[in-house]
Write a structure and sequence with these properties.
Layout: E1 2-5, H1 14-19, E2 25-28, E3 30-36, E4 46-52, E5 60-69, H2 72-79, H3 83-86, E6 92-93, E7 97-105, E8 117-121, E9 134-138, E10 142-144, H4 151-155, H5 158-171, E11 179-183, H6 188-199, E12 203-208, H7 213-218, E13 223-226, H8 232-235, E14 240-245, H9 250-258, E15 260-268, H10 273-280, H11 282-304, E16 307-310, H12 317-328, E17 336-341, H13 345-353, E18 360-364
Parallel strand pairs: 11-12, 11-14, 12-13, 14-15, 15-16, 17-18
Antiparallel strand pairs: 1-2, 3-4, 3-6, 5-7, 5-9, 5-18, 7-8, 8-10
Helix pairs in contact: 5-6, 10-11
This protein binds NADP nicotinamide-adenine-dinucleotide phosphate.
NADP nicotinamide-adenine-dinucleotide phosphate (NAP) binds near residues 209 and 313.
Length: about 375
């Protein structure tokens, strides 16, 4: 059970339960959440009231959610992606991204305070997600929300931008003057990758659909090539220091590897760790994934002299701080296509999966 001061409405910590016993406090032990009881289509998502709130750990923060960005991972998890890990843990609460207000802090939290507006993202393997009135994140998964952006705008950014950060900054370590190719720059990760590269002083070329061209150019790309109507091989000139492939098809992989300078980094978002674990179980699938990755790494090192990576989003406080700084400066924006109330999460998933919204789909918590 979590204790909340009435004056600021939301305030709760484990440790505060024993200490805050006055008229200004109320207890909450449950909240509203969108729950995934079994894998399936959007219709399996259930809005439940009175969902139990776990106790808050010492380094954790309770966030009263204002907006939650929907990521492709949410829809894939709903359909069963990651079942080797998540099936025994059903029912789950989906959602990685969040923007909202700090409602309570654990006893060792130092950088954030109750009432502060924050945004951030959970790690991909987190079991209790953000599709809820209240989300619980570690202190290092949150940063203050810049006042210049709304909660809806902020919630569209962190998971995608941290994925791009993991690739470009933590893996390829891009630096000023380098050339970066983003294959599939029109989505959230692609747009974040373009903006991170530009902020790092790189020149960016990207492929995207016709309708995304204005968007990727506004994000700072030097050149955008429409993959639906143009021959990428003839249009893509010169070599790149880093290639981020958000699509990860065999043809985009070959294209990306061929276009790298020696010593460059090819990074795909479509690694096979999870799908192999789902097919063969965590142990055998995990071993098969390691072997497959290693084989590709050796192969491309020998054939092209380049490094090959499967990129997985990770929470990264340094990255999140930089992303917040760029957001504050107006240099990190992910367009929002459509918003839905929390109670319409199933419809929001349908719209996201059917590509009926151009831009991020976001749940707004009433
Ligand atoms: N490994 C990880 O940790 C990780 C983390 C985040 C995301 N992902 C994966 O990365 C992918 C992108 O995520 P996201 O959040 O950016 O998704 P998103 O916002 O839904 O964007 C997807 C975009 O991909 C573009 N696209 C599709 N086919 C394309 C092609 N052949 N060539 C160029 N562009 C193409 C489309 O752009 P146009 O509209 O321009 O056609 C679409 O907007 C998803 O598959 C997601 O599951 C992986």
């Amino acid at each position: 059970m979590i204790r909340i001061p009435r004056r600021s409405i939301d305030y709760v910590t484990n440790s505060s339960i024993s200490t805050l016993k006055n008229a200004n406090t109320r207890l909450i032990s449950t909240c509203r959440a969108v729950v995934l009881p079994r894998f399936g289509g959007p219709e399996v998502l259930e809005v439940r009231h009175n969902v139990g709130l776990p106790d808050l750990g010492a380094s954790e923060v309770l966030v009263r959610t204002a907006a939650v960005g929907i990521n492709p991972l949410d829809c894939r998890m709903r359909s069963g992606y990651g079942r080797s890990l998540f099936e025994p843990l059903l029912p789950l609460i989906l959602g990685r991204d969040v923007s909202g207000e700090v409602a309570a802090i654990g006893s060792s939290v130092r950088q954030l305070h109750v009432g502060q507006e924050v945004f951030g993202a959970l790690h991909p393997t987190a079991v209790r997600g953000t599709y809820s009135d209240y989300a619980i994140l570690s202190e290092d998964e949150l940063v203050p929300k810049p006042p210049s952006v709304t909660h809806v705008e902020a919630s569209a950014i962190p998971f995608a931008a941290l994925t791009a950060w993991r690739a470009l900054k933590s893996t390829a370590r891009i630096s000023t003057g380098q050339r970066v190719l983003v294959i599939g720059g029109g989505g959230a990760v692609g747009l974040a990758a373009i903006q991170l590269s530009v902020a790092a002083g790189c020149k960016v070329v990207t492929t995207c659909g016709k309708l995304s061209i204005d968007r990727v150019m506004a994000a700072g790309a030097e050149k955008a090539i429409d993959y639906t109507s143009e021959d990428l091989r003839t249009k893509l000139e010169g070599r790149f220091h880093a290639v981020l492939d958000t699509i990860g098809l065999p043809e985009t992989e070959i294209l990306g590897v061929d276009l790298l300078k020696r010593g460059g980094n090819y990074m795909t978002l479509q690694g096979e760790v999870v799908s192999l674990a789902d097919t063969y179980g965590l142990v055998v699938g995990g071993a098969a994934a390691s072997a497959k990755l290693l084989k590709k790494q050796v192969q491309y090192r020998q054939s092209h002299g380049v490094e090959y990576w499967w990129i997985h989003m990770r929470t990264d406080f340094e990255g999140l701080e930089e992303i917040a700084r760029l957001t504050r400066a107006g240099k990190m924006k992910i367009p929002v296509g459509k918003t839905f109330p929390l109670g319409e999460a199933a419809e929001a998933h349908h719209v996201k999966e059917s590509k009926l919204a151009s831009g991020k789909v976001v749940l707004e918590i009433e």
